[in-house]
Structure formats: C-alpha cells, structure tokens
Design a protein that fits this description.
By secondary structure, the protein is mostly beta strands. It has one helix at 106-109, and strands at residues 2-6, 9-12, 17-24, 32-38, 45-50, 56-58, 66-71, 76-81, 90-97, 117-118, 122-127. Strands 2, 4, 5, 6, 9, 10 and 11 form a seven-stranded mixed β-sheet that branches. A four-stranded antiparallel β-sheet has the order 1-3-8-7, with no helix packed on it.
C-alpha cells in the first residue's frame, strides 16, 4: 500500500492550493482517508477526513475553507484549500485507515494512531 501526497507549495494569504493523495494497493471504497498537518514542535493535527461511506469531517479551524473529495477513477483524495491563512502553514500528510470507527468521534478521527498507512508529507507555506 502506498499513498502519494502532492500539491503543496507557497502561496500568499487568501490564496488557494489543492492537495492530492493518490492511493495504490488499496481502493477508496475500503478505507477512510484523512489529511493531517504538522508544524515543528507540535503534534500532528487532524484536518479533514472522508470515510469509506463518503461522510466528510473537518476540524473547526478549516470549516468553510477546505473541501475534501474523492475521485474513484483515479483512486485519489483531494483537499481543496481556499482562503489560506498563515496558520495553515505546515507539512500536510494523508493517511488511510481500515477502521469502521471514524464516524464515532472527532477525537478518534484526529488520532494519528488510528490510521494504518501514511503518505510522505507535502509542505504548504502561506505568507503575507
């Protein structure tokens, strides 16, 4: 199983980026996919999750600005990030999990230990 994350870059405040996570060795119907982000010295933070059933979740700080979606044909999950802020700057990771419990609580979804596979990070830098 491999997850390949891409799409990071440098943008100005208010700009947009679209991150992609291409999965191989698994199909999106069998896993939930989440995006996490991490800045140096801080814990990895759950940003968004789309369950195997297509239910989407967002952490409060990105609601209304980020959109997670799936493309079955390309086995890809994307994270469209609009109205970016400086505090969105981080390394973003995608993760896949086979658990059926992601709908239970935000704490469960946001816990990195509840995911089985991880992609490499992609750096997002937002500057004013």
């Amino acid at each position: 199983v491999q997850l390949q994350a891409s799409g990071g870059g440098s943008v100005q405040t208010g700009g947009s980026l679209r991150l992609s996570c291409v999965a191989s060795g698994i199909t999106l119907e069998t896993v939930s996919i989440a995006w996490f982000r991490q800045v140096p010295g801080k814990e990895r933070e759950g940003v968004s999750c789309i369950t195997r059933h297509g239910t989407t979740y967002y952490t409060a700080s990105v609601k209304g600005r980020f959109t997670i979606s799936r493309d079955y044909a390309n086995n890809t999950v994307s994270l469209q990030m609009n109205s970016l802020k400086a505090e969105d700057s981080a390394v973003y990771y995608c993760a896949a999990g086979r658990s059926t419990s992601y709908s239970l609580s935000s704490r469960y979804r946001a816990s990195p230990g509840n995911y089985d596979y991880w992609g490499q990070g992609t750096l997002v830098t937002v500057s004013s």
